[in-house]
Amino acid sequence: MRARDRRHQNGTATVFDARETAPAAAKKNMFKGHPEQSLRGGKAIAVPLEVLGLHEAHRAYGVRPWKELFGEAIGLARDGFPAHPYLVSAIESNKDVLLHVPELRDVFFVDDGGWRPPRVNETCCRRPALAKVLRDISERGPDALYTGETAAGLAKDISDSGGLVTEADLAAAAVRSREPVRVSVFGSEILVPPPPSSGVSILLALRILEGFREPLAGLGPIGEHRALEAMKHAFAVRMHLGDDHGQQEALNRDVIADALDSGFAVRRWWFLVPPLVPSPADPHAHPHPHSLSHCLHRTSSGR
Is residue 163 part of a domain? Predict the structure, then answer.
């Protein structure tokens, strides 16, 4: 859960920032030389905040009782559900990894004399332990996850897999209430969550596209080209944003101010007019010029 945005009748809005956070023992260079550990294994696990974020949003604006919100989720965890074709394909594609982790194997595979992925529409993914945790959370609130027996077991499982999250990290977890980033574009006011959300990148892409005032500027091959180029420049700027803490907080403010400045968007707009390209001296140019992503698009006419 990145954030939840709640807009009020008086025009104000609140963002509940429930993005996962790094454990206290995390280090800046902990994945140096082992980038795969940022994706798989215990070190890839951060302190989860989604349950806290949902609870905080419910506490502020919820209508139905908290406990009533869990019935369907508990039932799905307890009884499983019919396997969707996409899920079957994903399990098949990752079976070599999943089969080596007993806890994942038992959830996603069917044992009928040998472990295999579920067939489409075959009931799968029964998770009675998750059903119990969800039931506890429905009755006791987030404390059922972040303290006590469940927190101790979660921290132990993460530690046993080489991770860094501790009981103290879970007990200290907290959600931040923040102001959204807002801008007027194409005649509408748009609100997005602040970093680490990528919402600012979307706003910048829209501001760049707003420079093409023609009514049909976004249609056809040229419109698709402009949209791709606008997103390319916007996400190059995104590379300078990060978790809003410490020194990064000041950098985020500077980048957001630039992204929302109409002059900044206009300068990016000119990059969409060949043959202009960003200068290497541009402080918001992509920091890895030799590892850019390229997208080719072919229309029905072959162009």
Answer: yes
Q: Do 171 and 37 fall into the same domain?
A: yes
- Residue for token digits 């530690």? 159
Same domain flag for 68 and 203: no
DSSP letter at 196? T
Q: How many CB atoms lie within 10 A of CB 222?
A: 14
Report yes or no: 225 and 297 within 8 Å, Cβ to Cβ: yes
Q: Which structural domain range is residue 155 located in?
A: 3-80+126-177
Give pTM, 2 decimals.
Answer: 0.76
- Cα angle value 8/13/18 (rounded, 5°): 125
Does an H or E element contain 190, and which? strand 188-192
3-class state of residue 291 by DSSP: coil
pLDDT of 140-191, one tens digit each? 999 999 999 999 999 999 999 999 999 999 999 999 998 898 888 888 888 9
Burial class of residue 95, CB neighbours in 10 A (0-12, 13-18, 19+): middle
Amino acid letter for position 196: P
Q: How many residues appear in the chain?
A: 303
Same domain, yes or no: 203 and 61: no
The identity of residue 204, as a single letter, is L
